[in-house]
């Protein structure tokens, strides 16, 4: 599977769209917003730019996309007022993979521009916004172009399913699991880790070229607590999804081989693994690495149902590419029930990292 061509959040504003099912990600962003605001304030004071460049990597579409930019804009406005330095230009670049629903963002921009204009003090700065399709695992922008890079809920997505999990006949060694699980051979976790190292180092190198000295990044993504890959955090949710697929096999909805050959391009790194890559790259100073345990959402429906909708909005492009669209409703109904059953036994608390890096 070519991730760049297939993977996208469900577009538009329909019932299953990411726009309508991203409150979980919003909740996390709100929880860590103080870190974002502090980083933007510091970088503005340190760099006092004339023209400030901001990029949101993996922006997707929906309310979260513009809400983050509004927070950044307002922080810059109030900081510039405090220190009496006014940038003349505010440049915003929305990045995601090419199949992202950029149209929805573009359609919302005129209204959004009006909203930002209401917050402008002294008619400054002029606002410029545009889309930058492409993978963030590689260069996206010219040298020294950006002051601030934001990315939320993206970096746990690898550039591809690690090639090392396949044998010579191109068969997956991770049979019966979609991510690293209890019964995965050692080779599988090694291959996932290797792919993470390759991707994350390329991400760091690329951003380091694009950031000005003193520029910062605030990166929020899923991770894991310790060296063990299998835990009751993120890997457990993949295990529940695997169980839902297994039920579809027993119902004759999908073939066992289809499940055996399905693996996700996901990796939850540990603190040590992140620190190693940052140290090896060498030009980005780690200012902060905080870990959050995310509690379950109190929605109108059961937690399982809410959670299944959120996972579906993220996963359905990939799942339907492999198994076909027809299984989606049944799969996510089963998944919702299994999630509710597990939560009734014991909480599952996904681990989220917030990483703040500064270009030195
Ligand atoms: C769960 S969404 C997060 C959207 C938004 N940032 C938020 O917090 O609600 C993850 C996004 O990352 C994007 N993404 C994943 N891998 C990417 C890559 N290599 N380059 C650019 N975007 C990527 C996906 O297409 C998707 O839109």
From TrEMBL:
The UniProt entry, under Gene3D superfamilies, shows: Methyltransferase, alpha-helical capping domain, Vaccinia Virus protein VP39
Gene Ontology MF terms in the entry: metal ion binding; methyltransferase activity
Which UniProt keywords are present, listed alphabetically?
Magnesium, Metal-binding, Methyltransferase, Transferase
GO biological process terms, semicolon-separated: methylation
- The name this protein carries in UniProt is Uncharacterized protein
Write down the species: Pisum sativum (Garden pea)
Does this entry carry the keyword Plastid?
A: no
């Amino acid at each position: 599977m070519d991730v760049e061509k297939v993977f996208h959040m469900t577009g538009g504003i329909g019932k299953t769209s990411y726009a309508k099912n991203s409150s979980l990600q919003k909740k996390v962003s709100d929880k860590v917003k103080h870190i974002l605001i502090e980083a933007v304030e510091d970088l503005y004071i340190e760099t006092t730019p004339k023209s400030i460049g901001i990029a949101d990597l993996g922006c997707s579409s929906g309310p979260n996309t513009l809400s983050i930019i509004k927070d950044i804009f307002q922080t810059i406005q109030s900081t510039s007022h405090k220190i009496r330095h006014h940038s003349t230009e505010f440049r915003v670049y929305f990045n995601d993979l090419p199949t992202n629903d950029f149209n929805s963002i573009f359609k919302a921009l005129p209204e959004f521009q009006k909203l930002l204009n209401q917050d402008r003090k002294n008619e400054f700065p002029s606002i410029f916004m545009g889309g930058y399709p492409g993978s963030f695992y590689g260069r996206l922008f010219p040298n020294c172009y950006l002051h601030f890079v934001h990315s939320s809920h993206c970096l746990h997505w690898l550039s591809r399913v690690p090639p090392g999990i396949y044998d010579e006949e191109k068969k997956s060694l991770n049979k019966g699991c979609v991510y690293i699980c209890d019964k995965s051979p050692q080779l599988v976790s090694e291959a996932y880790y290797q792919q993470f190292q390759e991707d994350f180092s390329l991400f760091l190198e690329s951003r380091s070229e694009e950031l000005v000295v003193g520029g910062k990044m605030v990166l929020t993504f899923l991770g894991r607590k310790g060296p063990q890959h299998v835990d009751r955090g993120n890997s457990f949710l993949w295990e529940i999804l695997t169980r839902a697929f297994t039920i579809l096999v027993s119902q004759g909805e999908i073939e066992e081989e289809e499940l055996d050959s399905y693996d996700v391009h996901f990796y939850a790194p540990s603190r040590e693994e992140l620190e190693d890559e940052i140290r090896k790259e060498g030009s980005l100073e780690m200012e902060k690495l905080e870990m959050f345990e995310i509690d379950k959402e109190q929605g109108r429906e059961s937690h399982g149902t809410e959670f299944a909708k959120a996972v579906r909005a993220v996963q359905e492009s990939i799942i339907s590419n492999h198994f076909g669209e027809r299984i989606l409703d049944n799969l996510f109904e089963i998944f919702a029930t299994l999630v509710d059953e597990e939560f009734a036994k014991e909480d599952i608390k996904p681990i989220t990292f917030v990483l703040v890096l500064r270009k030195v």
